[in-house]
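Final report, closing paragraph on structural work. Over the funding period we assembled a curated collection of sequence-structure pairs, and we close with a single example.
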Amino acid sequence: MNILEVKNLDVHYGGSRILRGMSLEVPERQVVCLMGRNGVGKTTTLKSVMGLVKLSGGGVALAGEEISKLSSDKRARRGIGYVPQGRDIFPHLTVLENLKIGQIACGHKANGRFDRVYELFPVLKEMLERKGGVLSGGQQQQLAIGRALLTRPKVLILDEPTEGIQPNIIDQIGETIAKLRSEMSILLVEQYLDFAKALGDSFYIMDRGAAVASGPIANLNEEVIRKHLTV
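Its predicted structure, as stored:
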């Protein structure tokens, strides 16, 4: 079963067409890697799924329900957790306050979810009273993922979670994604090829606003990489 279906998305910014019939599927409890060179429409695709940009055409379905007309907050309540590029934590709020926003925003009871976040990211439990803005980039990324998990997502969307992160934190985030695979689906935008190949079940590669290659992660070979990803 596909938990997320993106169907023939068209998006225009001003007079420019950014997405050109972009489609992808995220099966239940799998990691799907969305890849491509800079500026091909990956982040716009994620924002379209989240309802943060207006569609010119196409649709988005979550667990079989068409959600294209829903606001972004309603999509989050339906079960889309989104960690944007740059993380977007609240720098003047504490770690605990940042986490509580994730829970409160979706109206869910905690029901042990905080303990699960602390289990996945023990450093957060040690820093609950620290302001988000004083955390390292890697710690902020862990906080952003933890906050998204408190929305109890069916699908977790991660936009370049390794960008600007120190290697030991990249390893921890990779281990966390591997653990979460048994609990939810994950749509991962990632430039770090080894990271994607180690974690992904399947991939889509974008160019000029559309998918130009896709398949099981085992098919992400040197020929495909050279043709679509090498700068």
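The radius of gyration is 17 Å. The beta strands are 2-13, 16-27, 31-35, 57-62, 65-66, 80-83, 155-159, 185-189, 202-207, 210-216. We thank the funder for supporting this effort.
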